[in-house]
Amino acid sequence: MAVQDVASLRSAVEKAIRDTKVTDVHTHIYPPCFGDLLLWGVDDLITYHYLIAETFRWAELPYDAYWDLTTQQQADLIWKTLFEQNSPVAESCRGVLTVLHKLGLDVAARDLAAYRSYFSQLTPGEYVDIVFELAGVRDVVMTNDPFDEAERKVWLESYRPDPRFKAALRLDPLLNEWDANWQRLAAWGYSVDVGLSSRCITEVQRFLKYWCDRMEALYLAVSLPPTFAIAEDSSRALLIRECVLPVCAELNRPFAMMIGVKKLVNPGLRLAGDSVGKAAIEAVESLCAEYPRNKFLVTMLSRENQHELCVAARKFRNLLIFGCWWFLNNPSLVEEITRMRFELLGLGFIPQHSDARVLDQLIYKWEHSRRIIGAVLCEKYADLLSAGWRLEEDEIRRDVGTLLGGNFWDFIKRKL
Ligand SMILES: [Zn+2]
């Protein structure tokens, strides 16, 4: 049925956005078989590293004293600081409230003990079902690091597949810290050396293929500093060129690059101590140009990189840009970036990923993002109606499906 006016347009878009299940292309959550690696519940939610950084804007205790507290004591401190002594207007705090509200808990009561008691009656498996339903998420892609001993052990000994959780092979220790990690590969039976001999290159390729296969990884991924350059004289650049990209091409897997994180600008904050820097878009352009048979999924952390990243995606069909990452995942920036992407790329991008570290965050990240993506899409459709175009409701559903999962799966399957 054709939409007739702006009011029926708005309700058709809202319905399509609400009813379409999402594929969340990058998260840090796990199915319950990973045990404690799956973070969930109100204490994990409140001690999310975004809120830790914000708490230290106010709290006077030393960093080390915070890290010596139990998770529940940390949550008490954050709750008192960010929710009781100040109004929780920051996006990360608002997110906590959205989660509790959508779960049907009484947010106005400000009763942390009651929230804890709600979660204490659930098993992780039950809560996964609740969260996926409330968040409108069909499946998520995890971040899977074979260098993490706890995670590695699950993959090798007790992994039980859950079709809602897809894998991505994360390569930060291998690519960013080769000197510190090559001996671990050697201990696992790979004939490698710090100098990256040709024998070593073949062996690293064998390692990558083994883990891609073992995990059924949809893509290989790394986070990179703003200074990253593929022309750099480094073990990282060599490993990407000689190991990662040939394996990705052979197995038809994209290589995901998350560029712009400055690690530990404040080490005292630990996981909350990373920051952002503007990167050189030339690193992306030259990889896409030099490796036309490789597919690249790219997100960049700096707001200043967003326009040139959009332009790069116009130039290279082997580049698919995704999400509003970390410090960009705020309503004002998501709106600005999403609008620009529609204007430069039409429907050819992945508007958002959750980056959820705590299961519960799927609920708020998708609630907040859906609202903005829908509003901006509506604005763009309204412009088309003003130009005399006609829109059908099933075309709107098709387009929303393209944005919330279709583009990702098409890219995964596409052969170049
Ligand atoms: Zn992430």
Question: What does this molecule look like?
Answer:
Helix content is 53%, strand content 9%. The chain has 416 residues and is α/β, with parallel strands linked by helices. It has a seven-stranded parallel sheet, sandwiched between helices. The protein has a two-stranded antiparallel sheet with strand order 6-7. Helix 8 runs parallel beside helix 17 (361-386), helix 12 (198-215) packs across helix 13 and helix 15 (306-315) packs parallel to helix 16. The longest helix is centred in the C-terminal third of the chain and has 26 residues, at 361-386. The two termini are 36 Å apart. The model has no long low-confidence stretch (mean pLDDT 97). It binds zinc ion.
Describe the protein's topology.
Layout: H1 6-19, E1 22-24, H2 42-46, H3 49-55, H4 63-67, H5 71-84, H6 91-102, H7 112-120, H8 124-135, E2 137-141, H9 149-158, E3 165-170, H10 172-176, H11 178-187, H12 198-215, E4 217-224, H13 235-251, E5 255-259, E6 261-262, E7 275-276, H14 282-290, E8 296-300, H15 306-315, E9 319-321, H16 331-345, H17 361-386, H18 393-413
Parallel strand pairs: 1-2, 2-3, 3-4, 4-5, 5-8, 8-9
Antiparallel strand pairs: 6-7
The structure holds zinc ion (ZN).
